[in-house]
Amino acid sequence: MSTSRIIATTIGIGASVVAGYGMYRLMLIGSCTGDGCGSGIWVFVVALLLAVIAAMVGDTLLLIATLFAGLGIGAVVGAVADPNGEWVGYVIGAAMVLGGLTVVLVGRATRKAMAGMRAAIRDSLPTVTPDTLQTTGRAAVAEVLAVRETGTTVNDNPVVGLRVRLTPTDGGAPVEGEKNALVSRLNIPRAGERFAAGYDPGLPDSFVLILAVTDHTPAHLRELYERLRTEATPGFDPLERLGKLNELRLAGALTEAEFERQKAKLLDPTG
Fold first, then answer.
1. Does 134 lie in the same domain as 106?
2. Are 172 and 163 in contact (CB under 8 A)?
3. Sheet holding 138-154: strands in order across?
4. Which terminus of the chain, N or C, has less C-beta within 10 A?
5. Which Pfam families does the entry link to (predicted)?
6. Residue 72 maps to a domain
7. What total of structural domains would you count in the chain?
8. By C-alpha distance, which of 199, 151, 152, 194 is closest to 177?
């Protein structure tokens, strides 16, 4: 529990106790003869408002139960102390205490049920990782249809929104998928480019683009990656990409070594 919730819960418990005292004063107002008889109303109202506000920030279930209990106990004590012996105080007190117990029981049962539902939903979702999509996913040629900025970066690498058309290599019908992905700032996909990809046929938004081969890249995706690199990519201009790399170099985002390495890849795609 955060510090703010602990503070709010502590204040709420105190306010509930004071509200219970206010309820006690209200139960005695009929037999009160002093000048301060009306103060019980203000004590009750202010404490009640404070307890409700605290319940919105702190432990809601605990504070609602505490408030009901405080009001119920205050009503019963007030009824006992009332020389007129009004029975209504006992009824109000019993109702408040039972209400508090009901809140606790229903609240706990609801929390348990919601936790079970969340666990069931979480367990029912497929666990798909990039490695899984590469090894067991359906191989496809992914044509980038759109790239959008998200404004998020991780270690200076951007997270971009990608919308792609996935054409299975086994001759299946193309499908479209869209997701946010972390990409290298040196190799940001562009609309019109094509990449080797693996995806889940049941969830087209679960796909992985092969932007670079590694030791873990399956052979069939490695071959597709190499083939696509040697083909002309619609809308791709190596000189324009080289200019952007130079801008990054001049801005200090790329070192000379990184710039030369990326330039060599552009000038010799098969290297």
1. no
2. no
3. 175-182, 157-168, 138-154, 194-200, 203-210
4. C
5. SHOCT
6. yes
7. 2
8. 199
Tokens representing 4 are: 């703010």
Whole-angstrom Cα distance, residue 58 to residue 62? 9
Domain boundary (106, 124, 142) is at: 124
Quick one: tokens of 134? 């590469």
Question: Which pair of structure tokens corresponds to residue 132?
Answer: 């899984």
Cβ neighbour number for residue 188 with a 10 Å cutoff: 16
pTM above 0.85, yes or no: no
List of the chain residues with pLDDT < 50: 124-126, 232, 269-271
Q: For residues 29 and 137, state if they share a domain.
A: no
Q: Are residues 183 and 232 in the same domain?
A: yes
* Same domain membership, residue 134 and residue 111: no
Give the residue numbers spanning the domain of 208: 130-236
Q: φ and ψ at 180, to 5 degrees?
A: -90, 140
Cα(59)–Cα(52) distance, integer angstroms: 11
In a domain, 178, yes or no: yes
Q: Are 111 and 77 in a shared domain?
A: yes
What would the pLDDT profile of 126-178 be if each residue is shown by its tens digit? 455 677 788 888 999 999 999 998 888 888 888 999 999 999 998 889 999 99
Total Cβ atoms within 10 A of residue 38 = 12
Instruction: Tell me the three state secondary structure of residue 219.
Output: helix
268 domain-assigned: no
Q: Residue 68: what residue type?
A: F
Q: For residues 253 and 186, is the Cβ–Cβ distance under 8 A?
A: no
In this structure, are residues 70 and 20 in contact, taking their beta carbons and an 8 Å threshold? yes
Q: Which two structure tokens, joined as six digits, stand for 176?
A: 């479209």
Q: Is 11 helix (H, G, I), strand (E, B) or coil?
A: helix
